[in-house]
Fold this sequence. Notes:
Strand content: 15-25%
Distance between the termini: 27 Å
Number of domains: 1
Structural class: alpha+beta
Amino acid sequence: MVPLALGSVSAQAEETAGPEAVTVLVQYSALSGAYADDAARFTMPVYFGRDDTVLTDDAQVALGALADETATYSTVTVTVRSNGDDDQAVAVYDTLYEYGVPARVMALDLEDDRSADVVASAI
Length: 123
C-alpha cells in the first residue's frame, strides 16, 4: 500500500521539501473506506537536481506505485504542488497522467501563476 510505504515519510516531507522538491498530496475520500481517518491523507516529496526536470528512476517507481494506488481507489484526489520550480511540478503531473492517473482527480498547484501555457502542457 502506498500510504504506508510513502506516508511514513510524510511528516518529514513537508519539513524537508525544499526548492528542489515537488510535493504530492494524496487525499482519500471517507467514502472509499480504504484507510482509517489518520491514514486518509499523506504527502510525498519528489526531489530533483537543481534546475532539473527529469525524474529519477526512484521517483518514477514511487509515482508508478501512486498511480497503481489511485487505480485501486477511485475516490482519491491528488494535488501536485510546486515548491519553487513550476516546470518540475508539471513534469510530476505529466508523469502521473502518463501512468494512468485521471486528470479529473488531479490538481496542479503552481507557485507562479504565469500563464495557461504551463498548465496546458500538463493536461
